[in-house]
Write a structure and sequence with these properties.
Length: 231
C-alpha cells in the first residue's frame, strides 16, 4: 500500500471515520481537508444494495447536475446532414462521420464525450474495441445515442454526468469542484442521491442506499448520513 503524504495524514485527523456526517457538515469538513494547490474535483460515492452480476439489478444512466461539474466537456458528435448542422449550432466541439472515425482509429482522443445519431451507430460500433475500454462508447441508456442532438449536446455542456454501478455495487460520480459554494455542492450531491433512489431496481431487496461519502481529489473520504434517502 502506498504511503500517504504528511499533508494527507494531517487533514485525515479532522475526519471521524466512525461518524456519518449530515450533508452540510460533511461539505464544510470537505473544504477544511482540501489543501491542494489546485481546484480539486469533488466526488460522491454510493454503496448500493444491488447485485451487479444480475441483469435486472444493473444501474446505469445519466443526469444533469443542478450546478454542473465545473468542467467543460469536449463533445464529439457523429451525425450527418441536418443533424450535423444541429450539433454544430448546439456547441459541439467536433462534428463528422468517417473522417472522425479514421482519426480515432489513428489514436486521436481530444474529446471527453461522444454523441451519435442512431443511423451512425453501424459505423461507430466498429470503434468498440477502441472506445469501450475508455468508457467512451455512446449508449442509449445515457442519452448519447439519439436523434435529439441539440438537447444531448446542451445537457452535456450544462454538466451532465454518467453513472454506472461497478462490480462492487458502488457508484462514483463527480459533483463539482472544491471552489463551488457549499450550497451548490450539497445540492449536486442531493440531486445525485435522489436520482439513484428513483432508479432503484425492483429486484433489489433489503437496504438499497447502504452508505454514501464525499471526497476531494487529494483529500480523505467523509461519510455522509444517507438515512434521509432510505424510504
Amino acid at each position: 500500500m502506498a504511503k500517504k503524504s504528511k499533508r494527507y495524514q494531517e487533514v485525515s485527523k479532522l475526519v471521524d471515520r466512525s461518524k456519518s456526517y449530515e450533508l452540510q457538515e460533511a461539505v464544510a469538513l470537505l473544504k477544511e481537508t482540501a489543501k491542494a494547490n489546485f481546484d480539486e474535483t469533488v466526488e460522491a460515492a454510493f454503496r448500493l444494495g444491488v447485485d451487479p452480476k444480475k441483469a435486472d439489478q444493473q444501474i446505469r444512466g445519466a443526469m444533469v447536475l443542478p450546478h454542473g461539474t465545473g468542467k467543460t466537456q469536449r463533445v464529439l458528435v457523429f451525425a450527418k446532414g441536418d443533424k450535423a448542422s444541429e450539433a454544430e449550432a448546439a456547441g459541439a466541439d467536433y462534428v463528422g462521420e468517417q473522417d472522425l472515425i479514421n482519426k480515432i482509429n489513428q489514436g486521436w482522443f481530444e474529446f471527453d464525450v461522444i454523441v451519435a445519431t442512431p443511423d451512425m451507430m453501424a459505423e461507430v460500433g466498429k470503434l468498440g474495441r477502441v472506445l469501450g475500454p475508455k468508457g467512451l462508447m455512446p449508449n442509449p441508456k445515457t442519452g448519447t445515442v439519439t436523434f435529439e442532438v441539440e438537447k444531448a449536446v446542451k445537457d452535456i455542456k450544462a454538466g451532465k454526468v454518467e453513472y454506472r454501478v461497478d462490480k462492487s455495487a458502488n457508484i462514483h460520480v463527480p459533483i463539482g469542484k472544491i471552489s463551488f459554494d457549499n450550497e451548490k455542492l450539497a445540492e449536486n450531491f442531493d440531486a445525485m442521491a435522489e436520482t439513484l433512489m428513483k432508479v432503484k431496481p425492483q429486484a433489489s431487496k433489503g437496504l438499497y442506499m447502504k452508505n454514501a461519502s464525499i471526497t476531494s481529489t487529494m483529500g480523505p473520504g467523509i461519510k455522509v448520513d444517507a438515512s434521509g434517502y432510505r424510504r
